[in-house]
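Quick one: C-alpha cells for this chain, please?
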Amino acid sequence: TTGSMLAFIETLDHPELFGVNPEVAHEHMAGLNYAHAVAQAIEAGKLWHVDLNAQKLARFDQDLRFGSEDLKGAFFLVKVLEDNGYAGPKQFDAHAYRTEDEEGVWQFALGCMRTYKILQAKVKRFNEDPEIREILDGFKTHDSGLEGMTKKFSRKNAALLLAKKFDRAKIAARGFQYERLDQLTMEILMGVR
C-alpha cells in the first residue's frame, strides 16, 4: 500500500530518489481509500505516477474501467489530483472485459479518459458552487497556532498537537453539515446541480 511504501522509502540511504505509483485497485484490495493514499503521497512530495482503474472492495486485482465501481470515490480522487495541480503521469492500469472485440477495447480506453474528463469538470463545478464554498469555509478554524502545528508534519508539531487542550464538548456541539455537503456532491455527480 502507499502508506507502507512511503514509510519504507524513508528507511533508504537516498529517499530523495524514490517515489510511489499508487493504484486504485491495490488500495481497495486492502480496504483503504485511494484518494487518501494519493493525498498522503502528495503531502510527502512522493507522488510520481498514478494508476487509475476501478475495483470492488476486498477482491482480487480486477483492473476495471476507471470510475465504474465507485463514482464518488473516483470524483474525490480527481478532485485531489486537480486541486493539488498534479501534472505527473496518469495511466489507466485497467483492461476491458475479456468478451470485448477490438472495437470494444478502444471504447473501453475512450471511456476511461472520458470519465476522467467528466469528473474533472464536476470538480470545477464543485469548487465553484457557492453553497459548497460556504460549508467548506465553515470548517476553517482561523487559529494561527493550530495552523502552524498542522501545516506540515514533524515530530515537534505532533508533540505540540498532542499536548494542546481542546474543548471537546464545544467541538462536538457544532454541526459540520457533512450530510448536506454529501448530498450536494451527489447532486453534482448526478448532473442536477
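The chain has a mean pLDDT of 93.
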